[in-house]
Design a protein that fits this description.
Length: about 475
């Protein structure tokens, strides 16, 4: 199987700097069942072509398949995998051209954002869906698609055409964009992968698909096929994409204004800042050292936590890739000393699914998170956090619906933010927290946050859950 990338950008041999591969040498990288060879069939100032040739060992492919119960099935010995562009090609792109795929160019970084004319040729590509699918996948990204379909057997034309195509894709884009499109869409065309996929495959998809997948008209098909039609993973990926689509584009200040319309006129600390401080103080008071900010958003709470030496490890988790990118920038993670960088980690995930990465923490905070979920899905979050992750202390904040009458321009029955699915009164929040604590063996106390009114309570409300520990037969 062969991929060639040709450019007529001037000077065309800039391609070798972007790919981090010297045009005067043939290079190799090891794959799980073979090798990938990188070489340049032509190099000049006017035109440059880089080639990625895969040499898959059919016997090695079977031996590396692992104990799947069908190691002696005929299909494992008679198949097209060593001869077509499939997920093996995506893996080879990621390994051979990792710097270019991840947007790095050591010698000429100014080239990274330069759109160049490219022609990418794939020989051959299995397409389950025919030429119409090829066009539906690549044309919305600006490609001109030229596809030559191959017959099943030229000697027997009556057998018809195969699903195999030689494909040429022409576009003027950056090399990183080209490689990310190929990385994702090659296995989508094939509708198969050579390896077992798990939840981390969602992160790969969203990472390589950022800035184009969420607006692609065929994104549902792309996500489903990329994840091998596994319903659970597909639903989780769609949830992430939908949440990203619904994210507010406004600044933090505007978002805060929407969440708390017409706050009292006197200049006072913003309610969101008070929530973050309250959560930090509770985690400090509990003596927590390993803490998780669940639904970390753009990293404001994490920034407060990083300033406290007590916290030895800080995890931030959010469903939105865009928010995590902002958090990474806000926390300046790439500029931190290595020791400090190891103290902080950002991950993408959903709180409605069990995630073993959340286990083993002393403390966790969910600051203004629960109200963004449909009430019917709260049970999944409860199990994920309180049953499976089970931190020793959990801090939860949420708006107090009773206080909404204090907002002059908030009509009766309206919620503070367009993305809120519910807002609870103090009695509702306390009933939920008490039931939760009883079910999962926690003690819970409730505290007000922000300005308070004798009749309607405080602007926001907080529950602090502390796990019960048995000592000599007694709960303490």
């Amino acid at each position: 199987m062969l991929l060639t990338i040709t450019t007529t950008h001037t000077p065309a041999d800039d391609l070798s700097f972007l790919l981090h591969k010297h045009p005067g040498r043939i290079q190799q990288v090891e794959l799980s069942a073979g090798k990938a060879h990188i070489f340049y069939p032509e190099v000049s100032a006017d035109q440059c072509t880089a080639a990625l040739l895969l040499d898959i060992d059919p016997i090695g492919l079977v031996r590396s398949a692992g104990p799947k119960g069908n190691d002696f099935a005929l299909e494992q010995y008679v198949n097209d995998r060593p001869y077509v562009c499939s997920s093996f090609m995506s893996a080879a792109i990621a390994k051979a051209f990792s710097s270019a795929l991840n947007g790095r160019c050591k010698d000429k970084p100014e080239l990274l954002d330069v759109a160049m004319p490219f022609v990418a040729k794939l020989s051959v590509l299995p397409v389950r869906g025919g030429e119409g699918l090829l066009n539906a996948l690549f044309e919305p990204l600006g490609y001109t698609v030229a596809a030559t379909q191959h017959p099943l057997d030229p000697a027997f034309p009556e057998w018809g055409m195969s699903r195999y195509f030689t494909v040429e894709l022409t576009n003027t884009i950056t090399l990183q964009q080209l490689l990310s499109h190929l990385y994702v869409l090659i296995p989508v065309c094939d509708n198969d992968k050579h390896y077992w996929i798990a939840k981390d495959e969602i992160e790969k998809l969203l990472d390589k698909g950022k800035a184009w997948l969420e607006t692609h008209p065929a994104r549902e098909l792309i996500v489903r096929r990329y994840l091998k039609n596994q319903r659970k993973l597909t639903n989780l990926a769609f949830e992430v994409l939908v949440n990203e689509d619904e994210m507010e584009e406004e600044t933090d200040e505007k978002t805060e204004a929407e969440e708390n319309p017409v706050e009292p006129a006197d200049p006072k600390p913003r309610i969101h800042d008070l929530r973050l401080l309250a959560a930090r103080n509770e985690l400090l008071a509990a003596g927590a050292k390993r803490v998780a900010d669940l639904g970390c958003g753009e990293g404001k709470l994490m920034k407060l936590l990083m300033a406290e030496k007590q916290f030895e490890f800080i995890l931030g988790m959010d469903v939105s890739y865009r928010s995590l990118e902002i958090a990474k920038s806000r926390l300046r993670l790439e500029r931190l000393p290595e020791k400090q960088r190891e103290r902080v980690k950002l991950i993408q995930g959903s709180l409605t699914y069990r995630d073993r990465r959340l286990e083993g923490f002393d403390g966790a905070a969910l600051v203004e998170v629960i109200e963004h979920l449909d009430e019917a899905r709260l049970a999944a979050l409860e199990r994920s956090v309180f049953e499976y992750a089970k931190p020793e202390v959990v801090v939860v904040t949420t708006p107090n619906a009773e206080y909404n009458v204090k907002f002059e321009n908030l009509e009766g029955g309206k919620m503070r933010h367009t993305d809120h699915r519910f807002e609870w009164t103090r009695k509702q929040f306390e009933a939920w927290g008490t039931s939760l604590a009883l079910k999962y063996n926690y003690d819970v106390i409730f505290k007000p946050i922000g300005e308070s009114d004798p009749a309607v309570g405080s602007l926001s409300q907080m529950a602090v859950f502390c796990i019960r520990v048995k000592d000599a037969g007694q709960f303490i």
